[in-house]
Every structure is written in structure tokens, then in C-alpha cells.
Amino acid sequence: MFEEILKNVSANLPLVHSITNYVTVNDCANILLACGGSPIMADDLAEAAEITTICNSLVINIGTLNERTIESMIAAGKKANELGHPVILDPVGAGASTFRTQTVFRLIKEVKFSVIRGNISEIKTVYAGSGTTKGVDADVNDAVTDSNIGEAINFAQVLSEKTGAIIAITGAIDIVCGANKAYIIRNGHPLMSRITGTGCMLTCVIGAYCGANYDNMLDSTAAAVCAMGLCGELAYAKTVKNDGGTSSFRTYLIDYMSKMDAQLLNGGIKIETR
């Protein structure tokens, strides 16, 4: 299903400028290399916009938010917009503090995003202007289930139309949608929530896939979400086989991303269209 998306990643080796958080920056760099991209992390205002000019896409992640990097995010985002490069936002912890929530809305006001990816609570905050999170984790009361998935798709599509961005809601059930089309993805494993950074890593993979496929943000995002979820499933199976724990799982997750190709992906994806 996503052969062309992965082919273009391999052919183009997209360079992804990631202004991300220092908790997960190393894993983000490694997952980018594993998926066929290349990372560069430059968050000083003196060079953020200039670095963006040599890259294929930009990822903005507010996980370890501070006043200094906000200006760098905006400068890089505006430069990426000027160049027509995809810009992906990861609104980590939106709703957890006034500062964090206000920053998300400032970013959305000043930068045009191609993709906004977050957990259900973060995306609800972006949609409604306020919300609740459990730190940087989703509020369990917000969880996407089979019974409320239609409602989640509806508000995500409204948000997509409002922002012009592809909306990716990730959790036990993933939703990736534009204003008129939605994918429901059921890949992944609960152990992914037991290690730090799977969401941040996914956002960077989206950055690589979109950076190699400028004309197809929706399918590129869906392919990245499927790939990451499938890597989680395969990593869990290998962790159990080798009697490993969460650290082994993290390593295997990156291993499988480095081995991901169209044949492996198409053989394991669990996706439907609405």
C-alpha cells in the first residue's frame, strides 16, 4: 500500500531538522537514521532558520519547552514555510500548563503546519483551546475506543480543515486524517508506552516520510504511523523470545525500523479507511 512512500524515503535520504526535547533527542536521531532519513538538531536562534534551508522538513517538539527555543521554533517554522518544506508539530503535554498551551497556539498562529501529531488529550487541547493531560501522557478518560472513534474522527477532521494540517492521533487506536479522508490504524503494542520517546520518535519518522513525499502528506503520515506500530509489535515479540525487558524493547524497536521495507510493512499493517 505504501511502496512509493518508502521508495522515496530510500531514494531521497531526507534531512530532518528536529527542534526537539533533550529527554528523547538521541532516540529521535537514531530512529531517523534507522528509517532512512538523517537528523540535524539546531535550536539556537542564531542558526535555526539557516539550518532549515538545507533540510527537507522540520519537526517542532515542545517536550522540554523553554523561552529560548520558542523563538527558534518560530524562526525555523517561518523559513520552512517560505521554502515550502513540511513542518510537523508535536504538542507534547499541551493542556498540562498555561505556558505550554499558549505556546502551542502561538506556534499554530505563526507557522503553517503540515502535520500535527499527538495523543488524544493533546489534540483535544489543540482543538478546544484547553484540556487535561497526565503530565505528557493522555488522560485515560479521553482514550479512543471503538465506541467513540467516530466522534474522534469528526473533531480531528474539523481541526484538519481549520489548520490545513494532517491530524495524527496516536494511542491504542491511531487516527490519521485530513479534512475529507481518515485512516484508522491498529498497529502497535502497549509496551510502547513503557519507554520514553516513542511518540517523539514517531513524529521524527513522520518528518522523514513527509520530507521525501512533499505531494502526499496524508499517506506519508499514515505510513509512518503504521511502520512505528508494526515495529512495536515485532519488537515485543523479540523481547519476549529473548526474555528481555523495556531496554531491550527500545533497542529492538529501532532495529526493526532499520529493517522496515514495503514488503514487511504491507505484510503487517492493520489499516482501514473512512
Give a description of the structure.
The protein is α/β, with parallel strands linked by helices and 274 residues long. The chain has a single domain, classed as UDP-N-acetylmuramoyl-L-alanine:D-glutamate ligase (3-Layer(aba) Sandwich). Helix content is 51%, strand content 15%. The strands form two sheets. A nine-stranded mixed sheet has the order 2-1-3-4-5-8-9-10-11, with helices on both faces. A two-stranded antiparallel ribbon has the order 6-7. Helix 2 packs parallel to helix 10 (246-259), helix 6 (120-128) packs across helix 7 (149-163) and helix 9 (217-241) packs across helix 10 (246-259). The radius of gyration is 17 Å and the shape is globular. The protein starts with a helix and ends with a strand.
Average pLDDT number: 94
CATH class: Alpha Beta
Q: Based on CA inertia axes, which overall geometry fits?
A: globular
Name of the CATH homologous superfamily: Ribokinase
Kindly, what is the distance between the CA atoms of the first and last residues, rounded to a whole number of angstroms?
16 Å
The value of Rg in angstroms is 17 Å
Q: Helical content, roughly?
A: 40-55%
- List the helices and strands in order: HEHEHEHEHEHEEHEEEHHHHE
How many helices? 11
CATH topology: the name is: UDP-N-acetylmuramoyl-L-alanine:D-glutamate ligase
Counting copies of identical and different chains, the oligomeric state is single chain
Strand order in the largest sheet: 2-1-3-4-5-8-9-10-11
How would a textbook summarize the main sheet?
9 strands, mixed
Beta fraction of the residues? 5-15%
The helix-and-strand class reads: alpha/beta
Number of strands: 11
Low-confidence stretches: 134-138
